[in-house]
Amino acid sequence: MKTGLLHPYPGSKKDWHKYPVWDERYCYDAWIEPCVGAGHQVHRYLATGIVNCAFIADIDPAVYTVWQAWQDPTLREAVAFSVYRWAESIQKAYATGDEDTLISNFNVLCHELNAPIPGHEVGLAAASIVLRKLVFGGVLRCNAQGTLNVALSKDKLRAFQSWDFKWPYVNPRWTVCLADSAHACLDEFEASACERAIAFFDPPYWVPKGSRPGRRGTGALTPAYTHHGDPQGDELKELCLSVLKRLLNNPRVERIVVTNYISPELAAAVEAMGKGGRAWRLTPLGELTTMNRGMIRDDCPVEGFWEFGGRMMAGRYEQQQLLEVAA
Q: Are 146 and 226 in contact (CB under 8 A)?
């Protein structure tokens, strides 16, 4: 089953064995995901019937418009047609060695993201879908001016020849409330009649300033994603803690899972919060690999998996696999 609306990119939570948000209890009436991204988790549990109602958000217009189109039959058809036209042109140009057309198409797609036209959601959504299939790692990185800093990948172009776009399954009986910010997403949920929600909060990751001395000698991460903020900035730390606090303070949210880099500052702030009577656990998941053939830097922060309420799931599937191998 195809899950998620966008090509997986670094930071994607498609691997539900590694990121077991759902705790195998059939008791939830809503899913909350304030930073939805490609949405592999929420789509999986909608499609399998674990929940039929979801509250999601993404601050990036190039992601938000894809979700907007997916929900609307007219927009969905228009975006699919636009994607097919782009794919046909690019595949034909590659097959015939027409490099000028390849470069021209790529530049037009980049322009759609750099300077989106108000009311032209179809063009923005189609460009967002196609570009992620053409650039290294599926990542739409930006420069200091906030414009795309990506190059056409020859390896991706070869793979693109066999690409056939299809929207992930959508059921008209699902209720999916889409917002353009994390707190607006929580506002939508709090105004609903849902009583037993499961929440997955996967914000842009934060590390303290100077915590990575091996990183170009500065400890800095690159703020390469325009809508995600500074990875060392107070704004991202506050986003993580303020959204988590609202979730913990709401008794109608039965289980909460949060991912982020582990740092003493963030771990202490989370530990000091009231948990609303929920059992909780922090599990280190190890260092994230880079996009460069899975290499691991010697100064990589460790990814954390915080669970509040429900069954503690981190590592459960890996343990099951080890037992199966031993048997």
A: yes
